[in-house]
Amino acid sequence: MIRNIGYGLTVLAATGPLCVPAAQARGPNKSKASTTVVDLDYFDAGLQQPDATNVFYGDDDGPGLKLRWGLTLFLSGVASKNANYGSNVSIGGNPVNEDNAWWEHSGLPVLRADYTWAEGGRVFGGASAVYNITRGSGFGDNTGATPNHPEALRLDQAYLGWNSGQLFADSLGEDALQFAAGRMDFAFGEGFLVGDGYFDTGKQGGYYNGVSEAFEKAAVATIDSHGWHGDLFYLEQDQFRPGRDDETRSYGANVHYRFTGRAELGAAYLKTYKSNVPALDGTDIYNLRAKGKPIPALKNLAIGGQYVYESNPKNDIDDSGWYAEASYKFQNTWLDPQLIYRRAEFSANYNTVYYDWSGGWGNWYMGEVVGEFQLFNSNLDVDMVKTKLHFTDRLNGGAIAYRFSYHNAQESAGITSRNFAKELDFYMNFNVNKHLILQAVYGFAVPDDGATQSFPDDQNADQVSHVGVLFATVMF
């Protein structure tokens, strides 16, 4: 059984409530290409301000007014064969080409302003816009989410804030307190639960580039002091849908503590108190997480994981999602190889809420075939093995193997097998210089019975699916 609710927003009833992808935002943070989600320095929680490194007014180091600008361009080209295992409809029922190709161009202009007082403290603000253009296939991407060659310009971020700077440096520490409000991007916990306030789809174009990030309205109060980080936040998402937008309002708190560079423990509570998405209307969401290097004798071993529990008795939501990951770096050996294993499980009605791509191939969009275009971390179990090789300081790459299974088979929807697909991806990241990053990935997925049964019987969805991508990030 297939439920169709608009461009790219169709889901199998077997996979539970609406759980469509968020924006991926693959650049421009090149540091994420060489770290993993269990590294302590992977992700800084709080307000995520877009890059603007060019100062055009003021002293870069002194007090007073400083104005900066930035411009980042994203260009991707995607080609696929048997995009949906030979079917000419996506897993959600949208029409697509059996062999599909398209390209996307996105532009992200940014303006930022800071005013710092000599005695300490500063006010800041920023604004950014996103321009997307999608060309190639008339159906757009492999989900059919961006048909008819969309092209759009929209305001993404526009916010004001205050930071304590040196005001409490002797007691709480430098930059200990911060408050910001407006249209802005806010994230914590590696983006597993909260990291993206808007995704580009439908008439907005840019499904693969996914540059838009900001919540429609947000307010965040943050403290960073002596290893503690805490956020109190309000988030309001107004997500484009054909016919009627999805609107979700939420509030919550996030906290983590870092132990002397060895480990980090965190927890969060999120209340989606009002939403026209039934799975999120009045839902209580709890998050626990930990990561670090707990074994002194194995300083190259990092482990971590997260657990999310969602409760909404009114709408029969009693679901969870979790992952556990281990990473080991073989240093002082040829190519400094790194080996990563992850196990992730998401129950039948789990909702990803505001999850993000969060940089690095294989993060929360697991699989360039399956995780990018088919299953979006609901009713899903995943085993992932990833290798990373460091050819030079600027060039790294490797391979990622996945095994995907439905968390629960849904015989009422004609799906009797939990086994969905096996996928193998090969990727490359090349930091050419401070202005240019080149990335490439090729992946193929071999369908199991669960995947074939997820498409209409007359589609014969039993072919190996191939996807190849070239991606460029240009920073001014």
Automatic annotation (TrEMBL):
Top-level taxon of origin: Bacteria
Protein name: Alginate export domain-containing protein
Organism of this sequence: Salinisphaera japonica YTM-1
